[in-house]
Amino acid sequence: MAGRWICLGIYLDNSATSYPKPECVYTAINNYMRENGASPGRGNYANAMASERIVYETRKTIARLFGAKRPSEIVFALNATEAINTVLKGFLKNGDEVLTSNAEHNAVWRPLKNLENSRHVRINCFSVSKDGKVDLDEIAGKLTDKIKLIVFVHGSNVLGNIIPVVRREKLVGS
Asked: What pLDDT score does 63 carry?
């Protein structure tokens, strides 16, 4: 084997596509495509109804995981970028204010800057230090009744930091 190269594939784009997937994912998708294959919500025949049940059960599981009151509060999107754009462009109105960090991904910054220009959305930022830390007092000081949405990366694939998140029913004045 002297003089021969052996090529091993190394995939380093995991944050974008999560490859390879666990074997159970491949098995579930393969079974679905072979045994069902119908689109949910497209009819009342057996396979379409089975697909609808799969989607509903998935929504129920995710609702429990995130503490949603109803499965109907769970919406699926093609990917995180589409979901972020849907929320930002669907929720923020003319003159609204948004709180975000200075370390956001382009998937957040680009639509926010677009909304700043097109809808006069005001962008308020809190700082993420070079070592990935945030000052919770700075964030608390920026929470006002004018803030309509808080958008930030909880776990950064760039810095590797985790911004602490506490669930509260009421953020302002609590």
From this structure: 96
